[in-house]
Amino acid sequence: MSILAKKKAVESEADLVEAIREGGPFVIEGGGSRRIGLAEGEVLSTRGLSGVTLYEPGTLTLVAQAGTPVSEIDALLAAENQRLAFEPPDLRGLLGRAGESTIGGVVAANASGPRRVAVGACRDFCLGVRFVDGRGQVVKNGGRVMKNVTGLDLVKLMAGSHGTLGVMTEVSLKVQPLPETVVTLGVPGGDAVEAVAIMSDMLGQPYDLTGAAWQGGRVMFRLEGFETSLRYRIGLMRARLRRDVVEHWGTEICDPIWRGIRDVAPFQDVPGDVWRMSVKPSDAADVVHAVAPADVIFDWGGNRFWLLVAEGTDVRVKMPIGHATLVRASNETKRRLSVFHPQNAALERISAGLRRKFDPEGKFNRGMMG
């Protein structure tokens, strides 16, 4: 259970070093909008570590302090017709949070949206990271360009660590130019089996899809690029699909569609627990059949999907295969079932060894991941 009565805010990396050396345990917090796990300790806020310290549009490189709001980065990039390619989800509506998402929280959660199916996850765009470990030591790893691979594995290790290995103070990211235009294709796809078959077939073709999702009986595909190329690819897709296809052109129409998938909008303000699942697309329909949720949203061509189930339901005892994370539930349910999927013995040994190396006294997000 999180102990949130006390809160310590830092305004600089030096403040953070001093706080870690003198205190703990801590619950690490950026904007307070994304954390799903339960942890014990005093809240240590990095929101004061804010600001873009380097942005070079010509080299598609951005360096920002960990507490920088994602909205600020999005606005800065948009002014140069660029973006964060991995389109980090905004889960405030799903989780009932009012905080502001920060770039450090995005990297810590490896938060990645529908475009991951084409370009990769958040960690694939992380060039470098600067953080403070459990001993109060500043660690800098990686660089500002993708070809600088020195210590790149450590950069990727921090992405998805959920603040259990260190407190990030700065991240370096590769960004991406905005496309000329975007189109979304809506295709009837009745049940989970049919939807996965359609998405798998289309993703197996050279159509350069940047989104493949299914919700409410409809399969949706996103294509981005030059209009002439899009029309050519759509023609090929129509010939292969041999079914009704509805085209939605332009960001004004397409962006809300994919934000809804990205942010799990259909489950917002709807009673029930929400689980995030990861399986092979070929196993997705079997998992849905076994769990029998109230509702389901497929993303990444069926590789990731969201389940809405009755409160207190443990989907892990019903699912035949895959990986499940409890994203939204009461604290009581989270304590009883655990938020993150249990690791096998080998992975747990590796994880425990990493935590001992970077946080030997267990100062960071104690109990967060088991």
From TrEMBL:
Residues 1-178 form the FAD-binding PCMH-type domain. It comes from the Bacteria. Pfam families: FAD_binding_4 (PF01565). The keyword GTP-binding does not apply. Keywords: FAD, Flavoprotein. InterPro entries: FAD-bd_PCMH (IPR016166), FAD-bd_PCMH-like_sf (IPR036318), FAD-bd_PCMH_sub2 (IPR016169), FAD-linked_Oxase-like_C (IPR016164), Oxid_FAD_bind_N (IPR006094). SUPFAM superfamilies: FAD-binding/transporter-associated domain-like (SSF56176), FAD-linked oxidases, C-terminal domain (SSF55103). One of its GO terms (molecular function) is FAD binding. PANTHER family: D-LACTATE DEHYDROGENASE, GLYCOLATE OXIDASE SUBUNIT GLCE. This is Glycolate oxidase FAD binding subunit.
